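Same chain as my last thread, 428 residues:
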Amino acid sequence: MLRIITQSAEINTELQRIRNRPYRDEIQAKEVAVGEILDRIKHQGDQGLFQPFDTLTIPTNLKVSGSDLDAAYQKIPKELLDAIQTVSQKLETFYQQQLPKPWVKFEDDDVVVGKRYTPVKRAGIYVAWDQGSPISRVLMQTLPAKIAKVPEIILLSPPDETGKVPPDILVAAQVSGVNHIYRLGGAKAIAALAYGTQTIPKVDVITGTGGLDVILAKRMVHGTVTTDTPVDASELFIIADQTANETYIAADLLAQVEQDPSSAVVVLTTDLSLAQKIQTKVQQKLQDNAHGILSEKAIAHYGLIAVVDSLEQAVNITNQFAPHYLILTLADPWHIVEKIRAVGSLFIGQMTPKVIGDYLGNGGVILPPSGLIRYASSVSIETFLKPSYLMEYSPTALKKLANALEILALAEGFTGSADTMTLRLIED
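reply #2:
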């Protein structure tokens, strides 16, 4: 049952337990095995892929063929294809607005400064269809890469028991601009993208979520390639007052654990009566929940309703925890929006369920681990762009700044840096 807690000390203890919930005891045991996979594929390429490091089935022909791609369209309902295309178009518009603009400024004394962005040469997208929301994961990774004008987008996804990638993933990949698709999963997929093999080319950026082996593999190859922040289990927080609708909130909580049974769901409210109504409504909905025991266990283990003294306390708890998602179901939600400093995606008002972000932007399904929202961000256009600054100084401009820069360089012990300016001025 979804628990109600009213004591501040107990709320803090429970939130700390929830933060530390998944994977912690498994990491050390997995690291050795994942490291071996990475090392063998790094040195053996394709030959390393087919060695039995794990239980994943590896098809002989890794690349998805053109006939498989064509057939995928025939295997999904027309209404699903229409939905994928509609959402893809909406997301393209959303991401287009985020595209950073290069700029150049011409200052006094013939000084030119600016900033430009160039796309990476090749992006690697990993999509695990057993992790929930595979279609939206495809769209929300590939479309930013497409808008960034990455020349080559490669998608890897584990095959099912028949050696195939699910057709909905194949269709979403084609609609969103993927160039090549390979049937490969787990740490092997990350290793192949990071180091390259005879079949799968090395990429510059790897994004995507998966199980613990994928998380560890991405951490280990970071530096060899750029990776998005490895994703752990997610959290949904809801701040609610007495005006909130308990039916909506119960539905939001169950929708979150339906996507990820290890997800934490936390309601912070000032109203004990609302807390009790939410608890009852969740219990009622669990009786008819399609995911049954999994959702019930998730709610019991990682669900919580915390009755707080004030909205200010709710905001402080949220900022301290830094959850992935936050819904504000308040009479005046905009009053506290500016006080929210550390969340991944923010959904404002009664009529804005988190599912909107899952399918229509806000990085809804590709976010950093718990707590890292303070300094990390979700997959976006910038993930696939390399910024570079440019500047040009004239002799007049250099003369005006040279003395100050020379003093700073010498104060820090960099005599060579000071020489780079003084020599230019002497020769001029």
